[in-house]
């Protein structure tokens, strides 16, 4: 399954608590799209969020965010894990 890193830029910053709630919503929706949101990182002052996701396509990953909470990523990059 392809691996993607998405990037969200939130004007005014992002809180770890708010991102945790959005991630939980992703987990509740993802199964219907063959998607698995794995981890996320938050730069609170900059309002930048990074999500690591296994998905059949970037569009499938974006669909989960759209359905779960509406916070669609600004960028989605297909990535491969290195050692």
Fold and architecture overview:
Pfam families: SCO4226-like. The protein is an alpha+beta fold and 83 residues long. It has a single domain, classed as 2-Layer Sandwich (Alpha-Beta Plaits), CATH 3.30.70.3090. It has 2 helices and 4 strands; from the N terminus they run βαββαβ. It has helices at residues 16-29, 58-68; strands at residues 3-9, 36-43, 48-54, 75-79. Strand 2 (36-43) and strand 3 form a beta hairpin. The longest helix has 14 residues, at 16-29.
SSE blueprint and pairings:
Layout: E1 3-9, H1 16-29, E2 36-43, E3 48-54, H2 58-68, E4 75-79
Offer a few descriptive terms.
DUF4242 domain-containing protein, 2 helices, four-stranded antiparallel sheet, alpha+beta, Alpha-Beta Plaits, SCO4226, 33% strand, 83 residues
Provide a short characterization of the protein structure.
This is DUF4242 domain-containing protein. This protein is α+β, with helices and mostly antiparallel strands.
Spatial order of the strands forming the largest sheet: 2-3-1-4
How many beta-strand elements?
4
Give me the strand/helix succession.
EHEEHE
The stretches of 5 or more residues where confidence is low (pLDDT under 50) are none
Please give the radius of gyration in angstroms: 12 Å
Organism: Petropleomorpha daqingensis
Protein name: DUF4242 domain-containing protein
């Amino acid at each position: 399954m392809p691996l993607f890193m998405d990037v969200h830029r939130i004007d005014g910053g992002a809180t770890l608590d708010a991102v945790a709630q959005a991630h939980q919503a992703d987990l509740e929706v993802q199964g219907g799209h063959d998607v698995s949101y794995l981890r996320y990182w938050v730069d609170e002052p900059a309002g930048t969020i990074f999500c690591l996701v296994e998905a059949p396509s970037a569009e499938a990953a974006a669909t989960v965010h759209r359905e779960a909470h509406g916070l669609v990523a600004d960028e989605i990059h297909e990535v491969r894990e290195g050692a």
